[in-house]
Specification:
globular, 244 residues, Alpha-Beta Plaits, alpha+beta, 26% helix
């Protein structure tokens, strides 16, 4: 099973066709050939999407670009059976062994940040295939990465995910899967990785679904107010490789 993830957020210059072709044809296959690595997916973020709840009444804190890089136009995700699949060798050593041409392409990335994360919990939504022979995540995702303002808040956050957020999405139309992640390395200690069938399904069913549960919506607002998110917040993105 895929229970570990290497996530790379980054930007690119406008002229990037050569990079994308290289990434999909050369770089990704090299990473997937590593022992324990099971799949890869590359996403392009879309701007101006409605946040959960429409953003109304939600207080969100953001890390500054001086604290953590703010790239996020593209998100590259690898799934593996265990976190050490990405640590033996680590990214720096792995990249240093690549040919000059590969390293030149990697240097095109700007605002890059990475996390290696493992799965804390997972739910399948109504759109999940059973059984599902394909491990690649869905055609649309929402990916938020964040830290608590204070470690004392984390017990309640864990309870909120267990008793409300994950449980409440099991029957929501358009949801394929939701994974709550925690960090092995990288700035963000936490992430939540949602998969949707389409952007339209997310907008229709997910954005305002808490409004019919005001007591839980209030709990969600309290939890969000105690988090510091990376920028951009959150990333909603369409899979560009492998093609949907």
């Amino acid at each position: 099973m895929d229970r570990a993830y290497w996530i790379i957020w980054y930007d690119l210059p406008p002229e990037n066709d050569a990079y994308l072709d290289w990434l999909h044809r050369s770089y990704i296959p090299k990473v997937v050939q590593r022992p324990g690595v099971l799949w890869a997916a590359h996403y392009a973020s879309v701007p101006n999407v409605a946040p959960l709840g429409g953003g109304k009444g939600r207080v969100s804190h953001h890390a500054s670009s001086a604290e953590v890089p703010s790239g996020g136009r593209y998100i590259l995700i690898f799934g593996a059976s265990a976190a050490h699949a990405f640590a033996n060798p680590g990214a720096r050593e792995f990249h240093s062994q690549l040919p000059d041409g590969d390293r030149k392409m990697l240097a095109m990335r700007t605002g890059e940040r990475t996390n290696i994360m493992v799965e804390e919990a997972r739910i399948d939504g109504p759109e999940a295939k059973r059984p599902d022979p394909e491990l690649t995540p869905g055609p649309w995702i929402q990916l938020g990465s964040f830290n608590s303002i204070s470690y004392q808040d984390e017990d309640e956050m864990a309870t909120w995910y267990a008793q409300w957020r994950l449980r409440s999405l099991k029957a929501l139309p358009g949801v394929i899967r939701v994974r709550k992640l925690v960090s092995v390395s990288g700035w963000a200690k936490h992430a939540c990785f949602y998969e949707f069938t389409s952007l339209e399904a997310r907008a229709e069913h997910f954005v305002h679904y808490e409004s019919t549960h005001p007591e839980m919506e209030a709990w969600s607002k309290k939890i969000v107010s105690r988090l510091v998110h990376a920028t951009p917040l959150p990333s909603v993105a369409q899979r560009i490789w492998p093609p949907a």
